[in-house]
């Protein structure tokens, strides 16, 4: 039956109160609820307390500091991110990626923190209780085997967030607040390649903000491939930040999503210093292929997703190189 489980909701007014509430057993954070609530309705999780972060006033601020650093509070809605003039001027790829998330009504409630911390997905997991029970459940929740990689001792559910790769190629950092205080880490460090434990957050910790350095001199973009353009997760998504000086690549950062249990940076060191040629495009293609691990976690076929990922990776760098 698709009904929500029983839970209490707390609406703390400060981050400190939220951290205290989240440190107790059975508590879970909620932002816009657009990822969490559909999952709970499917019986995926039974939190006793939902800690609603949307009443924490200063969690949703977006500001640019005197040194040009951008700070986006985790409670900012994706709509606010898309519409923010500072983001659009200095870091347009962030607004571009946020605008590609789901549909407009969705983005008016969904938060940046929820987008980054959203659960991983799998065709054997995002199903009703009835469906999953008929299949003997699975390793990610309530079961003891994986139907995607049989005999595996870990879950391969896929991370499909759109905004993380755009932030990662911009060298964004995550500001995390928890019972032990505040810590900063490169955004890529927030994620782990494990479908059932994909966030490196300790009990009681929340993502408070992302901090992004100035992007002057970099051409940055995010491309997403999905079945329906109106509302859909990425089957494959790729973000690229490129710095060009004449005929040479002087900086290249690439991140992918929709392929692994975490959004991942692709190793591109070998490409920096050279030009963008067919040979270097092939090196990039091989690097993306090596980093990605597309498995049968979506209804779209594995071969299709892999080929699309490789094709759009090359095309995106092509476009940025040619100033498109
Ligand atoms: C039909 C549909 C289409 C979608 N399409 C897309 C898409 O195209 N692209 C995409 O990226 N996503 C998509 N989503 C997933 C999701 O709705 C969005 O990612 C959204 O941005 C989640 O934000 P939220 O605030 O609603 O998260 P919530 O549902 O509130 O939370 C999601 C998770 O993050 C945790 N969390 C929330 N805030 C914090 C925080 N500050 N610190 C730590 N943990 C936190 C929650 O505990 C929960 O586990 C889609 C969802 C649906 C139902
Ligand atoms: S990858 Fe395996 S364990 Fe993970 S959700 Fe899918 S079937 Fe379950």
What does this structure look like?
- This protein has 324 residues and is of the alpha+beta class.
- It folds into 2 domains: 1-53, Uridine Diphospho-n-acetylenolpyruvylglucosamine Reductase, domain 2; 62-117 and 158-321, CO dehydrogenase flavoprotein, C-terminal domain (Enolase-like, domain 1, 2-Layer Sandwich), CATH 3.30.390.
- Helices cover 29% and strands 21% of the residues.
- The protein is built from 11 helices and 12 strands.
- The strands form 3 sheets. It has a 5-stranded antiparallel β-sheet.
- Strand 11 and strand 12 form a beta hairpin.
- Helix 10 crosses helix 11.
- The longest helix has 20 residues, at 302-321.
- It starts with 7 loop residues before the first strand and ends with a helix.
- The relative contact order is 0.12.
- The model has no long low-confidence stretch (mean pLDDT 96).
- Residues 122, 124-125, 138-140, 146-148, 155-157, 195, 297 line the site of iron/sulfur cluster.
Record the SSE blueprint.
Elements: E1 8-10, H1 15-22, E2 27-30, H2 36-41, E3 49-52, E4 62-64, E5 70-73, H3 78-83, H4 85-90, H5 92-99, H6 104-109, H7 112-117, H8 129-134, H9 163-169, E6 173-178, E7 181-186, E8 206-212, E9 219-225, E10 236-245, E11 248-257, E12 264-266, H10 278-291, H11 302-321
Parallel strand pairs: 1-3, 2-3
Antiparallel strand pairs: 4-5, 5-8, 6-7, 6-8, 9-10, 10-11, 11-12
The structure holds flavin-adenine dinucleotide (FAD) and iron/sulfur cluster (SF4).
Iron/sulfur cluster is lined by residues 122, 124-125, 138-140, 146-148, 155-157, 195, 297.
């Amino acid at each position: 039956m698709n009904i929500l489980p029983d839970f209490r909701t707390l609406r703390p007014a400060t981050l400190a109160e939220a951290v205290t509430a989240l440190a107790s057993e059975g508590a879970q954070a909620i932002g816009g609820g657009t990822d969490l609530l559909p999952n709970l309705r499917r019986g995926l999780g039974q939190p006793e307390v939902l800690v609603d972060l949307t009443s924490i006033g200063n969690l949703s601020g977006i500001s640019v500091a005197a040194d040009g650093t951008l700070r986006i509070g985790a409670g900012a809605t994706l709509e606010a991110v898309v519409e923010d003039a500072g983001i659009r001027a200095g870091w347009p790829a962030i607004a571009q990626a946020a605008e590609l998330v789901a549909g407009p009504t969705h983005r008016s409630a969904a938060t940046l923190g929820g987008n980054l911390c959203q659960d991983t997905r799998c065709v054997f997991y995002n199903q009703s209780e009835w469906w999953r029970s008929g299949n003997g459940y699975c390793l990610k929740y309530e079961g003891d085997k994986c139907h995607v990689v049989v005999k595996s001792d870990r879950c391969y559910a896929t991370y499909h967030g759109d905004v993380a790769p755009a932030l990662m190629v911009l060298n964004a950092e995550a500001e995390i607040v928890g019972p032990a205080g505040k810590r900063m880490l490169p955004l890529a460090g927030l994620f782990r390649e494990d479908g059932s434990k994909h966030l490196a957050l300790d009990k009681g910790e929340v993502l408070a903000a992302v901090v992004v350095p100035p992007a002057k001199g970099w051409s940055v973009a995010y491309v997403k491939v999905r079945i329906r353009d109106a509302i859909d997760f990425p089957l494959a998504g790729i973000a690229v930040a490129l710095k060009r000086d004449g005929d040479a690549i002087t900086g290249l950062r690439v991140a992918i999503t929709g392929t692994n249990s975490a959004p991942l940076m692709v190793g591109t060191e070998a490409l920096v210093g050279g030009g963008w040629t067919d040979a270097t495009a092939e090196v990039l293609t091989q690097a993306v292929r090596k980093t990605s691990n597309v498995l049968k976690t979506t209804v779209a076929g594995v071969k299709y997703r892999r080929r699309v990922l490789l094709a759009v990776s090359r095309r995106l760098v092509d476009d940025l190189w040619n100033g498109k």
